[in-house]
Structure of Fatty acid desaturase:
Amino acid sequence: MSVDSAQIQTTPETESTSLRRVVAPFQGPVLRESLSQLATSFGGFFAVCTAMYFAVDISFWLALALAPLAAGFLVRIFIIQHDCGHFSFFRSRRANDAVGFACSLLTMTPYVSWRRQHAGHHGIWNDLDRRQSGADIYSSCLTVAEYRALSPGQRWWYRTTRHPLVANVLLPPLVFLVLYRFPFDTPKDRKRERRAVYVTDLALLGGLGALGVAVGFDRVVAVQLPVITVASIIGVWLFSVQHRFEETWWVRHDQWRFKDASLLGSSYLRLPRVLQWFTGNIGFHHVHHLNPRVPNYRLQACHERIAPLCRIPVLSLRDGLRASRFILWDEDRQRMVTFRDVDGRTDRWFSKRRIPAQSVSTDPAYTE
């Protein structure tokens, strides 16, 4: 993996100011930015989808060629939904919930239940002793020792379901199209949350049904299915690479530290500008974990502010694509490894370069 980083600088600021205090000024929404992002994201999505409906009458393949662009706008809408779930997109909780629900009708992701699941992720990320929760399905992993303790059949199943083609291509559409239609991990006593899932389903059924009556159900399938499929694949990849990459940081609960889990256990995925725009700056995931109340459009500025204070590992786009191969956490070598590496075979993509474990200032001011 190629590595770039900002060098540690010992200054009075780094000695006296915590990272959270440095990040704090960036939390909170800027209304004009939020409204602008809503307009460009929803406007762009509907414009491209409309073009696809016209194009499908000419050629299905012409419409299909536009699907990645529409999916890009849909990913951006998902990031807005994500921010609404953190109550960082608007100051009003009611406004966040209203816009978040509106986004969910396009992303096919129930707003309330996903918000709870994701909040759970922010309490357990990169903690080896708290992986049992379903809130971390995108980023949790087995250790090498745990994998070796499985039966041959269990190892085969684990390898099969974690194969990049299965985990990153086949399963994401099933999650968004099928699994999210049910309150699969919502406790039975959370009746309101479970009901919200079915309300989302009914709204989707009504909206897509009305669209089908207006333009034809075959055209709806030809347009919407490729878009949600591509968007789901991109979305799941983004979430998995945020905490599962070769030189990440996983520890046992008694060793878990907020600052290290944020800066070492969360990726900075440096994307080309156009991809950064479509993914709502979520590549600055280390900043997001430092303070989830920083809206996506302020993440880059916040990153630039903290970069001189600490060393931040950087993943390129190529690194991010390769990251899906790193499945197991090796507690002895303190890095993610591939199945091939565990089996004792040489992986030509395996990098021997390693970022020093102590890559963040150890000043007490940074200790949670």
Observations:
- The CA atoms of residues 6 and 343 lie 35 Å apart.
- Residues 31-58 form the longest helix (28 residues).
- DSSP finds 17 helices and two strands in the chain.
